[in-house]
Structure formats: C-alpha cells, structure tokens
Amino acid sequence: MAVGTARRIVRDLLTAWGVPGEARDDVLLVISELVTNALVHAAGERISCRLRRTAERVRIEVEDQDGGPGLPVVGRPGPHEQHGRGLFLVEALSSDWGVTAVPDRPARVVWAELPSVPHA
To answer: How many CA atoms lie within 13 A of 77 on its CB side?
Structure first.
C-alpha cells in the first residue's frame, strides 16, 4: 500500500464520518508516518490498515506481515537529521499508541488513538 493511497482512502473515510478538519489532519499525518514506517522497516510485502471511530477517538492500526527485527521505538533525531521523526510525531499527536504482536504468525500491529474532535 502506498502512503498516498492510504492517505486518500483515510481522508475520504474521515470526511464521511464527519471528523473535523484539525482532527482529520492529525489522523492523516499519523497514518502517513505509520504506513511509511511499515514500508521502510518491515520485511514483508503486505501492509494493511484499519480504522475505527467512536464518539471520542479514532483508532488507527497498521499491520505488517513480517515485522522485521526489533520493535519500533521513538527516535530523538538531531535538528539537522533528515529521518527518524515518524514515531516522535505519532507519540506527540496521539493520546496513546503501541505495538501488538499477532499471535501464530510473524506480524505486528502498530496502533495509535487520536481524539476525533480538535484539541481544546
């Protein structure tokens, strides 16, 4: 799944759900970062995304079929480094996030939950 395709599908879904602009923009940034991380760091060829919405939040799940070595960690890149800010942004925009192993197969789900309304 290409990052642009994921963003386009998620944007359309969030619009249909009535998620307001600022909250929608945060979700789109997080989906971009999670899909990019899966494309760059996962060893598998298949990535899937799931979204769920409640009145209070949107939950994003990005699953890669072969998580590759190690678990994702929040980077703290220097001001001139070009990469390594993805999970830092996910952490900053999300009310919660984490990684869940998929039982009985070499896959993992990186998930994030964000408010479905703009921050007060």
So the answer is: 11
